[in-house]
Structures are given as C-alpha cells and as structure tokens.
Specification:
The chain has helices spanning 16-27, 29-35, 38-44, 49-58, 78-86, 98-106, 110-113, 147-160, 180-183, 185-194, 198-203, 206-216, and strands spanning 68-71, 91-95, 116-120, 133-139, 161-172, 220-229, 234-242. By secondary structure, it is of the alpha/beta class. It has one domain (46-242): Vaccinia Virus protein VP39 (Rossmann fold). Strands 3-2-1-4-5-7-6 form a seven-stranded mixed sheet, with helices on both faces. Helix 1 crosses helix 2 (29-35) and helix 8 crosses helix 12 (206-216). The radius of gyration is 18 Å and the shape is globular. The termini are far apart. It binds S-adenosylmethionine. The site of S-adenosylmethionine (SAM) has 20 residues, from helix 1.
Length: 243
Amino acid sequence: MFRISFWEKFLDGIPEYLARYYWWAYLWRPAIWFFDHQPIINLILFGQYKRLLSQALQCLENRPEGRFLQLTCVYGKLTSSLLKYLDNEPLYLVDVARVQLDSSLNKLKPEQRSQLLLACMNAESLAFKKDSFSTILIFFLMHEMPVSARKRTLSESIQVLQTGGRLIIVEYAENPCRHWIYRLRYLRKQLLHWEPFLEDFWKEDITAILKQEATKLGKTLRQTEQHLVYDSFYRVMVYEMTE
Ligand SMILES: C[S@@+](CC[C@H](N)C(=O)[O-])C[C@H]1O[C@@H](n2cnc3c(N)ncnc32)[C@H](O)[C@@H]1O
C-alpha cells in the first residue's frame, strides 16, 4: 500500500521545500501558536530579536515614497511595527501559506487590520506588476530557501522594485566561522539540523547574486548599507535600485 509522509499533508500549493523541512515551524497550526511567543522568538535568535527589529526599522528612515512590501510573514511584532511606522499607508504582505497570513492578521489590533493588504503568493513568482514597490523588506526568509528558490525570489523582488526603491534584507551574516555559536560544534549541528539550507546560505554572496539578477533584468542595484549584529552573526543589508 502507498503511504504518504506526514509532511506531504501540507503540500497544498506550498513549495515542496517548505512543506518537507518547515511544516513543523510554519504550516502546522499548533506550531504557529507555539512559535509566536516573544521568549521563543528571542531564543531562536539568541536574544537578538529586538536589536534586529530596531536596526531594520532604522533602515527605513527617509524611505522613498511608494508602496511597501513585506515579503513573507514573520513571528513577533515586525508587521505591527511596520504598520505603526507607515501610519495610515498600506502594507502589502505576501506569504504562500494562508495559515500564516491569517495568523499575521489575527494578531493585529482591529484598527490596524484594514491597513494590511494580504496576498497569498509564492515569493518565487510574484504576481505584481514590474516596479510596483518603493520598499521591500525580507526578514529571515533567504536562509530557509534552497539556492534555486532563493535566486528566483531575489530576482522577483528586483523585478517589482522601482528605480530609487529600497530593498532591506535581515539575515544571518556570511561565513560566521569565528563566532562562538559556529565554533561550538554541537550547537552548529543543531542549528543546521533545523535550518537545512543555512550552510549553503552562509557561503553565498547575496550582493553578487542580487547584482547579477538585476543585470539580467536590465536594472542596477547598489548596496548602500550593511549593519553587522551580534559580533557579525547577523546582518541587515540595504540596497538601492539606481537608474
Ligand atoms: C520569513 S520566513 C522566516 C521568519 C522567521 N523565522 C521569523 O518568523 O521570525 C517564514 C515565512 O516564509 C514563508 N515562505 C517560505 N517560503 C516561501 C515562498 N516561497 N513564498 C512565500 N512565502 C514563503 C513561510 O510560509 C513563513 O510564513
């Protein structure tokens, strides 16, 4: 008799890597409830959540006028902080998992809900018009994707970012081999067990990929800022789409 694995039950328009490797974090309802608690989020980010969030918000200063896209849902208060920052302007929030979009909406105050525009989409194939957004924020998504999905997502982000637009990526830093977390073999192995694409991500030059993908689309992107956090274990990168 043919039997399907537990994770395959989550394959319902969901990319295979997400269902297979992250069902327990993003698709299974009890997990969504469990992970969306501040102490858990802080534990996963080794106590750095507040610093990363505040650095990301600082990078929005003087952001270009126009539409704002948060590329995928995140646990914690990023979305509500962005809505506060945007005042009455709308925030577009894309995620491929309907349960995540529902959860992001449900945790907002009723008066903030109408400011959030939800779109159930795969980040690898965004159904927005070219140059739709002036700001795109990607918070810890890249390292959870296999190389090909990551490249496609970056390419799609460039495609929908207008000239003069800003792209902000909050992520693990490149090559953290001198950091204590990396040097503690057991801890590194645990991290890589739960984050199976992180090892590849650590070795990748995201800026080079972004520039390459931009060139393919006839666009030019330049890095304007990089903030290293927690002794260079994490980073916040800012790019600008130039003429
Ligand atoms: C932003 S990432 C990780 C965030 C981080 N671990 C946190 O919660 O703070 C997790 C989200 O990305 C979404 N996701 C993953 N791959 C996606 C894709 N290809 N397209 C759209 N959403 C995706 C998942 O459904 C999940 O809601």
